[in-house]
Amino acid sequence: MEKFDHTTTPSGIRNRILIFSLVVTLIPSFGLGWAFYSQSQKLLQEKVELELHNIINLAQREAAAWFKENTVNMRVFSNSFVISENLEFFSNPTKHDGSNSKELRAAKVEVLNEYLVLVQSQFQEYQRLLLLDNTGLIIAQSSPEGKFFKLPSDWVEQLSHQKMIIGDMPLNGSSTATFMMAIPVYSLKREVIGILATETSLKGLRSVIENVALLSPATTLSLLNKNGDILDSPIQTKKDVTTDRNVNNSLKRLYINPMKLSTYDNVRGTRVVGVFAPLPHLSWGILMEKMYDLVFAEVLKLKNMTLTIIAFLLFSIGLAAFFLSRSILSPLKQLAKGAMLVADGDLSVALPVKNNDELGFDGLVK
After folding, report:
1. Angle at 234 between CA 153 and CA 172, to 5 degrees
2. φ, ψ (nearest 5 deg) of residue 121
3. Around Cβ 191, how many Cβ atoms within 10 Å?
4. Torsions phi, psi of 300, nearest 5?
């Protein structure tokens, strides 16, 4: 009689049981696992967004308060009688014609210079104070003459619309970065007779936002302009000033979409989550960056846990299916072997009992 081949084949019963077990485990496991992961990820992302928005909102409020305080101080100085009285002399030169006009002019410039020096000594954030006439020419200043100073090209429009002038911050990556701010000086008749301008250090603003950054680990707060350039950052150096195109485009998108989270590689090549908050009256604002791995640590942990559970289920069900198929096929193989012996005329075959179930063969053949 032809012998029967008991070798396991890919389409054999054991493999079919294994495949069926894995499929019926895999589909619901992945389905439920994905649903659980998606919902949990959504909740965690909302939590992360809320945390980051709280930090950036606090930094925005603190920076706005710092800027407002500086603006109020400048308006107080501009209302000084020393400034208004002496500056009016230069706004109406025809009223002061005489043989001693040159000496009077020099004396008034000296008074204004001394006043500006006094104010600068009381407020260390002011790197330089200047008084300008209505055309933007320097009349007096607190530092030695000769240092370059220029109003922005749209200063007349700014002065007309928002009653102040804000200059562009130089992109130099310097630790002594400054920005220019100016306000009009009014006479007693509320006529503009000149402009009070300051070059203000960003040390005070940097200190304010760095204190906010301490509330969130591994967080960096920087200043970003509309061109996607980082103007001032605690981790920035001069070689970081010129960013590559991809980083620059990512930062531009942040500026265009304030308060919206975005993921990108920063100037150091580190994967970060960033969000931008504008500052009133300024063409730049606050950029908040936090390491991606820290921001989404819980999400990544949840993902790894979900995959581990699915892998464990697959292994457990696969192992159980293997032993189940073995417990079924082993008696069947013995039965097939016994049947072949009986078919060959050997009636003394006895099949041992290994299971007290439907596959127990005791007494079937003896």
Report:
1. 35
2. -70, -25
3. 13
4. -65, -40
| Tokens standing for residue 79 | 């209302």
* 236 contacts: CB under 8 Å, gap ≥ 6: 173, 222, 230, 267
pTM, 2 dp: 0.68
What distance in Å separates the CA atoms of residue 11 and residue 21, rounded to the nearest whole number? 15
Whether 152 contacts 162, CB under 8 Å = no
Residue 283 pLDDT exceeds 70? yes
Nearest CA-CA partner of 78 in 164, 137, 158, 156: 164
Count, residues in the chain? 366
Question: Which is nearest to 269 in space by CA: 283, 297, 250?
Answer: 250
Structure tokens at 129: 């104070």
pLDDT over threshold 70, residue 2? no
Phi and psi (nearest 5°) for 288? -110, 130
Only one residue has tokens 């069947």, namely 332
Calpha distance 48→273 (Å, rounded): 10
Structure tokens at 77: 């100085």
- Report the distance separating Cα 231 and Cα 224, nearest Å: 6
Question: How many Å apart are CA 22 and CA 28, to the nearest integer?
Answer: 10
Rg (CA), the chain: 40
Residue 1: per-residue pLDDT: 46
CA distances for 68 relative to 65, 162, 166, 280, angstroms:
5, 14, 13, 9
- In which element (H, E) is residue 271 found? strand 271-278
Tell me whether strands 230-232 and 262-265 are parallel, antiparallel or unpaired. Answer: unpaired
DSSP H or E stretch at residue 278: strand 271-278
**Amino acid letter at 256?**
I
Give CA angle at 200 (106, 284), nearest 5°.
135
All residues at 6 or more sequence positions from 130 whose CB lies less than 8 Å from its CB, including other chains: 116, 138, 140, 141, 142, 149, 196, 197, 198
**How far apart, in whole angstroms, are the C-alpha atoms of residue 56 and residue 361?**
76
The pLDDT tens digits for 80-90 are: 888 888 888 87
